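User:
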Amino acid sequence: MRFRDLMREVFSALDANRGRSLLTILGIVIGIAAVIAMTSLIGGVSQALVGELGLDQARMLYISGSTPTRELDEADLEQIELNVPGYDFVTGLQYSSANISGGTKTEEGASLLCVEATYFDAGTVNFIAGSSFTDRDASAGSMVIVLSQPVAKKLYGGDGSDAVGKSVKIGNDSFTVVGVAEAANAYQAENYVPYKTAVSRLPDVYDGYAQVIGYAREDVDANDLAERTRTFLCSYLGVDPDDDESGYVDVTAMQSMIDQMNATMATFSLMMSAVAGISLVVGGIGIMNMMLTNVTERIREIGLRKALGARSADITKQFLLESVTLCLVGGLFGILLGYGASWALTGVASSLADGMTVTPALSPTAIAAATGICAGIGIVFGYYPARRAARLNPVESLRFQ
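Assistant: Predicted structure:
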């Protein structure tokens, strides 16, 4: 029997039991939709989290260390660059907070990041207006500041861009706004001042770096660079990793954090897919049940076909193709439903994660896998009914009432 004739018979049989067919594939639709929606949601959340970390975040290393007598300073950073090859640059920073006043309004307890100009080279700060301060500003201890957009909007209205060129007060000092930067997220709105300016003007900022950020070259393994930096600093500072009283050194590569996050997301995705897979198994059982019912109802038809010359292989192909077609149709509806559900779920996730936009990450691989799973279910759960139909005795089948 030609394939075209087989397909005609398949669709004719399915159309004759349209309601039963639609109910049977419901488990397949739900299972595939759940798999597509969950993988798209988890992939979207993972991409959004990585995006929140900034551009080229995999190349960043966070370095901190101290001894009982001192913390890392500018001379230590020079030693790191000299003795641990592989960095584009290494820069230090301090944390502070202050009331920032501009016009007639004040932002109380605003977060201040006291940084060198090289900090902005990492590409983690996006400007909506103006620019960062320069190396000359940083080395001269100039009275300049980069405001976060939420603070600039509160002080000067609009989108905050009008704040550039204006003056704000921190304590008794006036700072000129040279740039307005986007907030990293709803919970992290940093304002930036030159490190030397902060040390000389802000009472709670001491001379020493609370945090050091290194930026690895593109051809360097960040995890290996982190280990080499840790080894050097322990030797250089005289810190024994097993003795907390001698001080501490901690070097964390953002790449390792990203790898851990991806591993966690992959595990969660696997768990959710396994749960969704239960629906596919239930749907497959439903397919088998329907096909067995079809065989019973069509015994006389099978006997007549065999009497007219149909081979057992033709009967097997027909019923197996019916099963696969049911699963593929269910898979198609499941993919469409899952794609729509993924947009709805990511919309909910975006609203819950204020300041972070989540979009579904639907990959062609997931669609291809879903199609393959549907075909596989059709073959696995349709084979037994198809073989049972093919083995029927044509004489006894024609006598069946």
